[in-house]
Specification:
Elements: H1 4-14, E1 20-23, E2 30-36, E3 45-53, E4 57-59, E5 63-70, E6 73-77, E7 80-84, E8 89-92, E9 98-112, E10 120-122, E11 124-134, E12 139-143, E13 149-150, E14 153-155, H2 162-174, E15 179-193, E16 199-211, E17 223-226, H3 228-231, H4 237-249
Parallel strand pairs: 11-16
Antiparallel strand pairs: 1-2, 2-3, 3-9, 4-10, 5-8, 5-9, 6-7, 6-9, 11-14, 12-13, 12-17, 15-16
């Protein structure tokens, strides 16, 4: 595949006089040519993007359509991956956190209304760790007031490994003391809200755990023990998909 210098040269030749933007400028992973900028038509803008990896972001008002003109693109929508091939397209609604990865895939991006910097909100990444504690085919979940559930988890403190953070958070949130890690299951990526109200896209490192005792001491959250089938409709889509994949791949045995 062409390097970024060749991509920039190609765009300038193909669209003379149009603005070409490199993100980041020094060593870009995304190169964008404003073919029909918003300054010409506020209702619609068109850009050609060569994408290696774009940063997570969302739009408050604009609807974007990504149409792959060459190559393959992994488009992430609130952390859920959608694979696009040459000739395929996908329309992204406002407020969906999205980013893309590709081997310099060429993508036509149409925004309605036209793209503006004020409508382009960059989303920070966050990392946390937690666990699935198995006991007699049931798993403890943190229960929210609206009836939904999630895995016990939390932020990784300075100097902690992901495994150590997962154990600490599970013990703190469930009150289970005799918990040990069996293996790492993988990573769930989904939107989250920080204590200060910031919306982030969060990588949650999850470990399979077991406990010898169901005695729960003091704990931070309301906990419910559920089977996988009971939990799936109550989990966020990304977490339910992760749990289902763990079952289908055999990394989680019931």
């Amino acid at each position: 595949m062409k390097n970024f210098a060749e991509v920039i040269a190609q765009l300038k030749k193909e669209f003379p006089g149009k603005t070409v933007i490199s993100n980041p400028q020094a060593n870009p992973t995304e190169i964008i040519c404003e073919v029909e900028p918003t300054s010409q038509n506020p209702d619609r803008s068109v850009a050609i993007a060569f994408i290696k990896q774009s940063e997570p972001h969302r739009h408050s008002t604009s609807v974007e359509t990504y149409a792959v003109e060459a190559g393959k693109l992994d488009l992430y929508l609130d952390g859920i991956k959608k694979n696009l091939k040459t000739g395929q397209s996908f329309t992204i609604r406002p407020e969906i956190i999205h980013w893309a990865k590709g081997n310099w895939a060429r993508v036509k991006v149409v925004s309605k209304p036209g793209w503006t910097a004020i409508d382009h909100v960059t989303i920070e990444k966050a990392v946390s760790a937690g666990g699935l504690v198995m006991n007699d085919n049931k798993i403890p979940f943190v229960k929210f007031t609206n009836g939904t559930v999630t895995f016990p988890k939390g932020h990784i403190e300075k100097g902690e490994t992901r495994k150590a953070a997962a154990l600490r958070e599970v013990r703190e949130e469930t009150g289970l003391e005799s918990v040990r890690v069996i293996k790492k299951l993988g990573v769930v990526t989904r939107p989250g809200v920080e204590p200060d109200g910031r919306i982030v896209i969060k990588d949650i490192h999850l470990f399979l755990m077991e406990t010898e005792s169901l005695v729960q001491g003091e704990h931070d959250r309301e906990i419910v023990w559920l089977t996988v089938n009971e939990a799936l409709p109550k989990l966020m889509t990304q977490e339910a998909e992760f749990l289902s994949k763990c079952l289908s791949s055999g990394c989680l045995h019931l």
